[in-house]
């Protein structure tokens, strides 16, 4: 019973029966697209709201100031791992990660450590994890999360080794974050914080969700499977590279791109190709670069883009080989 609930087979069956009741053939292109859209919208909203609430309640114990103090006490690779893990439970797209990234630099956190946070934050988060679990199962979700964290750790550590602090705008180091004390929250305040987080985050991203699911539904019902399988399948050695390059100018969050990746994989696109597209769309975007330009110089933006893009391409090829 529990397994059926968690697998959402009850929802799949319910949507199918509802469409058939209204005379729609779910085996047709149009019927398959409508079924995909309704099923994914309901499933993702349930998973999203539940997981955001749970993680937000846990996160209420860790203010930005407290997190900054924890990172300050760490050194070496441990700090990069901690920052990357922190990125998994914070903002849901690259542009909302940038303000925290700026705050960490202003607060004296080493540059490489802040980049470990910036790389991982948009790629991996609790909502994306839950949606990945529902779409691909625990094995793929685990590979994705581990890959995103390792990319953040490796990318940030490499930037640390290159010693690129001189490419941060000078005024940033002259700014200081406040050192105010954060009071302890009551259980009710934590509950209210989690509930407001659900309302705020879902309110901000629902449009991306609907657009992503809508595109995924069109691909699911109408995209030519033979063409996608031939040119974007795991046997095409250039597919991952092209998917990453195409994705960089785009802008979305993980929740909006997962339904697209799910539909592409269903049409024969390689798992690694779809994952590379999703990672590049969320971690590298033009709006993010514009925001970053306010605090770091073009050369550092280029290094960040090159390291992250290369890492995503490597991950994509590994996915295509092992999955």
UniProtKB/TrEMBL annotation:
Membrane topology note: Multi-pass membrane protein
Keywords from the named record: Cell membrane, Membrane, Transmembrane, Transmembrane helix
Lineage of the species this protein comes from: Bacteria, Fusobacteriati, Fusobacteriota, Fusobacteriia, Fusobacteriales
Pfam families, per database record: ArsP_1 (PF03773)
InterPro entries on file: DUF318 (IPR005524), UPF0718_permease (IPR053166)
Protein name according to UniProt: Permease
Regions crossing the membrane: 36-58, 141-162, 205-223, 235-252, 264-286, 298-319
Subcellular location: Cell membrane
Native source species: Propionigenium maris DSM 9537
């Amino acid at each position: 019973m529990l397994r059926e609930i968690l697998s959402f087979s009850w929802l799949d069956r319910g949507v199918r029966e509802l469409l058939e009741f209204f005379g729609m053939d779910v085996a047709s292109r149009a019927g398959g697209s409508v079924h995909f859209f309704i099923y994914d919208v309901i499933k993702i909203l349930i998973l999203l709201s539940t997981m955001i609430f749970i993680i937000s309640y846990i996160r209420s114990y860790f203010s930005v100031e407290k997190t900054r103090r924890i990172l300050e006490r760490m050194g070496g690779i441990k700090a990069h791992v901690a920052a990357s893990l922190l990125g998994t439970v914070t903002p849901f797209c690259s542009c909302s990660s940038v303000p925290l990234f700026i705050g960490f630099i202003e607060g004296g956190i080493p540059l490489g450590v802040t980049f470990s946070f910036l790389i991982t934050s948009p790629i991996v988060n609790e909502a994306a994890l839950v949606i990945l679990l529902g779409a691909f199962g625990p094995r793929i979700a685990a590979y994705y999360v581990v890959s995103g964290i390792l990319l953040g750790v490796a990318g940030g550590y490499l930037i640390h080794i290159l010693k690129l602090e001189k490419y941060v705008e000078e005024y940033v180091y002259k700014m200081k974050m406040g050192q105010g004390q954060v009071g302890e929250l009551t259980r009710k305040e934590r509950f209210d914080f989690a509930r407001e987080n659900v309302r705020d985050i879902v309110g901000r991203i629902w449009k991306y969700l609907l657009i992503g699911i809508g595109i995924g539904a069109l691909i699911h019902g109408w995209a030519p499977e033979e063409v996608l399988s031939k040119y974007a399948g795991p046997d095409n050695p250039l597919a991952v590279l092209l998917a990453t390059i195409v994705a960089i100018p785009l802008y979305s969050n993980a929740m909006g791109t997962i339904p697209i990746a799910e539909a592409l994989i269903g049409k024969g696109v390689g798992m690694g190709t779809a994952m590379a597209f999703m990672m590049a769309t969320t971690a590298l975007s033009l709006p993010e670069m514009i925001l970053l330009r306010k605090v770091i110089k073009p050369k550092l933006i280029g290094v960040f883009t090159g390291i992250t893009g290369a890492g995503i391409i490597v991950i994509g090829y590994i996915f295509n080989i092992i999955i």
